[in-house]
Amino acid sequence: MPYVIKQSCCADASCVVACPVNCIHPAPGEVGFGTTEMLYVDGAACVSCGACATACPVGAIVPDATLTTDELPFIDLNAAYYEAFPHADRTPVALVPQQRRLTRTGPFRIAIVGAGPAGIFTADELLKHPEVEGVDVYERLHTPYGLVRHGVAPDHPSTKLVTRLFEAIERQPKFRYFLGVRIGEEITLADLKSHYHAVVYAVGASSDRSLGIPGEDLAGSVPATALVGWYNGHPEQDDLEVPLTHERAVVVGNGNVALDVARILTRPIEMLERTDLAPGALEQLRDSKIREVVILGRRGPAQAAFTVPELIGLAALDGVDVVVEADPEMLSGDDQRSQLLSDIASREIDPESTNRRIVLRFAASPVEVLGADGRVTGVRVARNDLITGAEGVVRAETTDEVHTLEAGLVVRSVGHRGLPVADLPFDEAAAIVPNDRGRVEPGVYVVGWIKRGPVGFIGTNRTDSREVTDTILDDLDAGLPEPIGSLRAAGDLVAKRCPAATGREGWQHLDAVEREQGAAVGRPRVKVCDPERQAAISAAPPAPQRRRLFGRFK
Prior knowledge:
Blueprint: E1 3-5, H1 14-18, E2 24-25, E3 40-41, H2 51-55, E4 61-63, H3 73-84, E5 108-113, H4 117-127, E6 132-139, H5 147-150, H6 163-170, E7 175-179, H7 189-193, E8 198-201, E9 207-208, E10 221-223, H8 224-231, E11 248-252, H9 256-266, H10 269-272, H11 279-286, E12 292-297, H12 308-315, E13 320-325, H13 336-345, E14 356-362, E15 364-372, E16 375-388, E17 394-406, E18 409-412, E19 416-417, E20 439-441, E21 444-446, H14 449-452, H15 460-478, H16 487-497, H17 504-520, H18 531-539
Parallel strand pairs: 5-6, 5-8, 6-7, 8-21, 10-18, 11-12, 11-18, 12-14, 13-14
Antiparallel strand pairs: 1-4, 2-3, 9-19, 15-16, 16-17, 20-21
Helix pairs in contact: 4-15, 8-9, 12-13, 17-18
C-alpha cells in the first residue's frame, strides 16, 4: 500500500526528511523543489511506513488504497515523475545543514511588511539565527496569512492547513505582530529604518492584469482578485457587487484561480455551507441563478495554466458537469493535461441532467465585453489559431470567426499584478520592485510576488525566503547602519501613531471567535469581514494567561 501525494504542497520538506528510503522528490537542492506543482512519491520504492503522511503538515499524502475513483489519476501522476526523473539513490536525506553564524554578533532587528506566506516564512528563516533579537511583522489588515486566508478557495480546506506552520512560527518569543498598521501612511519606511537594521517588503501582488478590450470596465466585469476576496471575506471586498441573476458567467483565463472561481459559482449551496466561505457571499450565492460557467483559454490544453492536481479535483466534482470544448487534435497530446482533458471530454453527459456546468473552452479569446445600460450582457469571443514558433512556443492568433456568449458576469482572471510601493522604485513593465536576490538597497529588501512576480505556489515562498534571508545576512555581515531606536521604541511608535493596532493575542482572540461562530452552525469558522468589528474583537481583552517570568523587550 504505497503512499501518494494528491495536492500541491507547502514545500516544508518534512516528508522528505521523514522518508527512510528517500522516495519523495524533488528534494531540497534538486531542480524543481519549491517551484514544481507538487512533490511526488516513488510508489515502486515506497515501503508504506506512513512516516511521510505523519510529517506532512497539510495532509497531502495518503495511502493509494484510500483514493477515490476520481483521485486514481494521482497514482499515474506520481509515477510519471519517476519515469522522467529516476532516483536510484535510496540513502535517507539529511536536511540539517550547518547553522550559519554571522561574523557580527548583533543583536539585529528586522521589520517585515506583510503577513502573508512570504513574510511569515522569511521571519522564520531569520529567527533561526541567534544574532537576530526580534522580527516584527507589520500588516495593514487585522488578520494575517494573506492569500491563505483571502485567496485559497473555501472548498480547499486541506490547503489551508499550512496555517499550522504559521502558528508555530508566530509563537516564537522573538516574533511580534503589528496588525492594522498601514506602512507608507501611518508608519513610513524612514520610521522603520530608524528602528530596524533591515526592512523586508512582502506585500504581494494585489491587482489584476487587464484584458485591454472594449467593455471590460462595465458593471458586472470584475477582476478575479476582487471576486476571490469577496467570497473569502476580504474586508475591502465584502460589499462587492457580484451579479448572479444571469444563467451564465464567463471566466477569462484558465489558471488555478479561474477553476476556483468556476467551482465556487457552480457548487451546490449545501456543500458551500460546510466551508468558511464569507457569510455575505454565501447568502448571495444561495439565490444565484448561474447554471453555467464558461472558462476561456486562449491556447490549447497543453498550454493551459491550471495545474494537473486542480484539474483532477475539478473532474471529480459532485453535482457539476464538466465539459471540454476543444478541437480533437488538441486533445491528442501525450502530456498529462491533454490526456486528462481527453478523458473528461469522452464522458457521456445525460442530456436531461439538471446539474450546473463548467465548460473548458480552448483556443478562444474575448474581443469585447458587451453591455447595455452600463452593465455586462455578454462577451464576443473569437476562435484562435495556434501557431508553433521556431523554438516550439505555441502562440494564439485571433481569427475573424467570432460568436457571442450571453452572460451577466465576466471574471477577468489573466494574472495578478504588483502595485507600486511607497518609497520604493517600481518596474511598471514587470510590476515588481527591482531587486538583486531580494536586495533593493542595503537594508531594504523584497520577498514573494513583489520580488519575483506572481508565479509559484505557497511553498515557493519558502524557497524564496531562504534566498532573501541569505542576502540580508550577507549585508548584516558587511555592516548595515545601526538603527537609533529599539524594539520597545518601535512598539511605542506604533501605539502612538496607530492606536487601533493589534498583535498576536488580538488575532488569536479573533480567530477563536470565528471558530466558535462556525462551530455553532457546523462550519469550520464564520469569518468576521467588517474591519471595524475585526478591530473591536481583536482589541477585546483575551482570556487570562499565565504571567510570564521574563519579558522580551528592554
